[in-house]
Amino acid sequence: MRQFQEKFKTYQDKFPGWSEQTNGMHQYVIWTALEAEGLGVNLQHYNPLIDVRLATEFKVPTEWDLKAQMVFGKPTSGPAVQNKEFKPIEERLKVYGAK
């Protein structure tokens, strides 16, 4: 990211946010791909509790920043929440400029 911040000075303050968005998109795509293969997936946010241990054990470069751990495997049961209720989509999603 730093190389792009140097190369594109006008947008240098935007790259950290774009990096977070890209991370989220990758998590979503990987999650759905694993689910499509019949695997169960869970995203864990244990950091910073496990950062040092993971960096040491897996030789993660120090300049990397742990965001989450995606755990996956063969499901042994169904989702814990079977009948979750949601607000109507109109209350959760706003579209501006549409007719």
Please count the helical segments.
4
Largest sheet: 2 strands, antiparallel
Broad structural category: alpha+beta
Rg of Cα set: 19 Å
Order of helices and strands: HHEHEH
Distance from first to last alpha carbon: 39 Å
Share of β-strand residues? 5-15%
- Low-pLDDT segments: none
Query: Would you tell me the overall average pLDDT?
Result: 89
The residue fraction in helices comes out at 25-40%
Summarize this structure briefly.
This protein is an alpha+beta fold. The protein has helices spanning 2-7, 15-36, 51-57, 89-92; strands at 40-44, 69-73. It contains four helices and two strands; from the N terminus they run H-H-E-H-E-H.
What do these coordinates show?
39% of the residues lie in helices and 10% in strands. It is built from 4 helices and 2 strands; from the N terminus they run ααβαβα. It has helices at residues 2-7, 15-36, 51-57, 89-92, and strands spanning 40-44, 69-73. It has a two-stranded antiparallel ribbon. The longest helix has 22 residues, at 15-36.
Show the helix and strand layout.
Blueprint: H1 2-7, H2 15-36, E1 40-44, H3 51-57, E2 69-73, H4 89-92
Antiparallel strand pairs: 1-2
Key words describing this protein structure:
39% helix, single chain, two-stranded antiparallel sheet, flat, alpha+beta, 99 residues
